[in-house]
Amino acid sequence: VTGVLAPALARRSRAVRSGPIDDLFALTAGRQDLVSFAAGAPDADALPVDLVLPATQRALARWGPAALQYGSTQGLLPLREACLPVLAARGIQVSTDEVHVATGAAGGLNNLGMALLDEGDTVVVERPTYGPAVKVFRSYGADVVDVACDHAGLIPEALDAMLSTRPVKAVYLLPTFQNPTGRTMSAQRRAAVADLLVRHGVLAIEDDVYSDLRFGGSPVDALWSHAPDQVVYLTSLSKTLAPALRTGIMVVPPRLAEAVLALKQGIDMQTSSFTQAVTTELLRAPRLAAHVGATVDLYRRKRDALVNVLTAGLFGEFTWRVPDGGLFLWLQGPRAFDADALLPTALDAGVAYLPGSAFHVTPEDGRNTLRLSYASPALPDVERGAARLAACLRQHA
Amino acid sequence: VTGVLAPALARRSRAVRSGPIDDLFALTAGRQDLVSFAAGAPDADALPVDLVLPATQRALARWGPAALQYGSTQGLLPLREACLPVLAARGIQVSTDEVHVATGAAGGLNNLGMALLDEGDTVVVERPTYGPAVKVFRSYGADVVDVACDHAGLIPEALDAMLSTRPVKAVYLLPTFQNPTGRTMSAQRRAAVADLLVRHGVLAIEDDVYSDLRFGGSPVDALWSHAPDQVVYLTSLSKTLAPALRTGIMVVPPRLAEAVLALKQGIDMQTSSFTQAVTTELLRAPRLAAHVGATVDLYRRKRDALVNVLTAGLFGEFTWRVPDGGLFLWLQGPRAFDADALLPTALDAGVAYLPGSAFHVTPEDGRNTLRLSYASPALPDVERGAARLAACLRQHA
Asked: Is the CB of residue A81 less than 8 Å from the CB of residue B254?
């Protein structure tokens, strides 16, 4: 019997085998002693448990059965309205017509991949990039290629060369507090990339889920603001409110809207009216600003703790840039360093990280890098884990 | 600018253009005078608004921040546990290992289509069948073919002939209170179809979201119970609890689990922990049985009202079988009757239905049929709408 079903899988099922991230979660599950810098999940203390019950009460009182019923595929209008000021603060001036609710930013990205990609299409990504996005593009048969980046993000000359060489369906970017590197593209770079998009007639997907977690420096307007007709903008409320709301927000150029909506009908019909109604009430809550402020402050202190311990414990072999926000610190080791090979030793020493290979189209390119997420462990654990990691890296680099 | 993005759509975006269902919702939006038998949405009075707030309170008290955090892709273990007795009552004896939480039954179906289907694969469906499922299969490039059915469901000889003719990737069935016909496959037919699945080594997807809405007669064990290794079973809590919970449940054979989970990571990462926790508490609520009982009773009275008025108002030109449960009555007209052509006239007369063509792989096959959903209009409106419809059909058949 077991043999009968195996050949029935689609080819794409082989393209999305569990990767190092999934394996790591299996390895670390239930290890209370371990400090994990692997997961990108928010701190449990930053989740607004005490705001959600009153928001649910208000949502049910205001909408009644409509909060439990089927709803519009594009999303609840009051939620799309409540998002307009959030978007405007990032340089995105749109009407509710262009705002779509997605089932998390992940749901939005999948919806876009499905609407855009045919087998053999090329998608350009940053080097390194967010690994799960590469899997989504590959699940639709895309050929994913990366272009060189520096501390200010995608290098326009490298992108120009790539777009001049082959037909490209979409460019996928994370311009602000990038996962995994934490870096932010400068306004100048955004303008230069937007020029290339327009010149080559190529669409970009801007994935921006961390920009409200800014610790310092000045906000940079979204890439979208430089080329609104060429950019699909994607954000979520998972990082400042709660991942379990699964509320993603997309700004979709009108030409793509029909395809995105028709496919979303098949993907999940619509995002939950219930979580949309609760999210709308959370966005209207007077205490929200204080909650987000406290969350940003918490992550700033964790970033500082991590950076301080590493600075004291490592001497030049490893380099990093301190991010102005977001959840990630990216370490680059000596050329011979192998973050994949060191992982079992680090786990034995009581600390977990994600090897940089998980964020590279060609895993070998990332062998000497690793990603640390300071979001999830409690502050004292960040310090303890950083000390363990520094010791481990000193010994084995 | 508008021309730039249009050619960038995937081919599948053309395969899922909005169909008659979507057009109809646009046509009828905001018409307060209209009685719509078109939508399959639950009665607003059947949505458990007063159960959801206490369930949310209990969920937040029991799980705290975990109810707002990222969670397992397969779904919350307590929810999977709470589903076991629901499944056992349908002849499905499984452990939580085989139970997967999906983002609605729609999310589960899309997840399965993605895991199973390559371009050019064949999927067999009933004639007629649930139209949106056909769109999902086509969105993955499948060739969808239908086989003949009678009042007891799929005709085994017709299925055997089809499976003997060409390689088939999956058979999609709705054995209980089928959408759109309301019919239920007999136990004998289920056994015969299961035998064919085993003999031909073909997988079936059993879509069963209405079986808890039984008005009379005896429950029939799921097709799954006859061939557990060959059937993926799909259900949801949208019809007895609330669509907005978007909680689907799948029973997935172990051989498919890895692919289903790996792809779900990309589709939406996971179904909302928040709605899963609330759903778990709703399933544990002592008042749930009374709520479901009242819901079933409400729909039984609406079915009776619809059938009574149609029986009094139509004389032999139209035929139907009274369903033992679910939300739909299926009318078959004289050969020359054209339900698509009559729809504008019916809308003018203040009543909406879905033409049967929307439920056929070859729309022309369903021209003389139509689907009536009695779920959504209030009881007096069911009677008023049925009288309008009967008058309309008498005049134009």
From this structure: no
| Chain-chain contact of B265 with A135 (C-beta, under 8 angstroms) | yes
**Residues contacting A50, CB < 8 A, separation 6+:** none
How do residues A250-303 score in pLDDT, each as one tens digit?
999 999 999 999 999 999 999 999 999 999 999 999 999 999 999 999 999 999
Cα angle A40, A45, A50 (rounded to 5 degrees) comes to 125
Contact A327, A181 (CB under 8 A): no
Q: Which portions of chain A are predicted below pLDDT 70? A: 1-7, 17-23, 25-26
Low-confidence ranges of chain B (pLDDT < 70): 1-7, 17-23, 25-26
Q: What is the distance in angstroms between the CA of the first residue and the CA of the last residue of chain A?
A: 49
The 10s digit of each residue's pLDDT in B6-28 is: 457 898 887 776 665 666 766 77
Q: Which residues in chain B have their CB less than 8 angstroms from residue A203's CB?
A: 5, 8
CA separation for the pair A235, A238 (Å, rounded): 9
Amino acid at B103: T
**Strand A231-236 to strand A247-251: parallel, antiparallel, or no bridges (unpaired)?**
antiparallel
Quick one: which H or E segment has residue A5?
Answer: helix A2-5
Sheet with B369-373: strands ordered across: B328-332, B369-373, B354-355
Q: Which of B226, B238, B249, B277 is nearest to B83 (CA)?
A: B249
Q: How far apart are CA A390 and CA A320, in angstroms?
A: 13
Contact A268 B246 (CB under 8 A): yes
Res A5: pLDDT: 46
Nearest-angstrom CA–CA distance, A221 and A207: 13
CA neighbor of A193 nearest in space, from A229, A235, A224: A224
The dihedral sign for the CA sequence A183, A186, A189, A191 = positive
Q: How far apart are CA B119 and CA B147, in angstroms?
A: 21
C-alpha span between A282 and A48 (Å, rounded): 9
Cis peptide before B219 (omega within 30 of 0): no
Specify whether the CB–CB gap between A247 and A101 falls below 8 A. Answer: yes
Q: Which chain A positions have a beta carbon within 8 Å of B22's beta carbon?
A: 265
Taking CB atoms and an 8 Å limit, are A13 and B117 in contact across chains?
Answer: no
A65-111, pLDDT tens digit by residue?
A: 999 999 999 999 999 999 999 999 999 999 999 999 999 999 999 99
Q: Which residues of B touch A266 (CB under 8 A)?
A: 16, 106, 110, 132, 135-136, 139
The answer to whether residues B185 and B152 touch, using CB atoms and an 8 Å cutoff, is: yes
Which of helix, strand or coil describes residue A83? helix
Query: In angstroms, rounded to a whole number, what is the distance separating the alpha carbons of residues A154 and A146?
Result: 10
- For A341, the token pair is 């090979």
Cα diameter, chain A = 61
d(CA A20, CA A373): 16
Query: Which residues have CB under 8 Å from A157's CB, separation 6+?
Result: none
- Give strand pairing partners of B203: B170
**What's the CA gap between A224 and A249, in Å, rounded?**
14
**A116 contacts B68? CB cut-off 8 A:** no
Q: How far apart are CA A204 and CA A350, in angstroms?
A: 40
What is the CB neighbour count within 10 angstroms for residue B396?
Answer: 14
pTM: 0.95
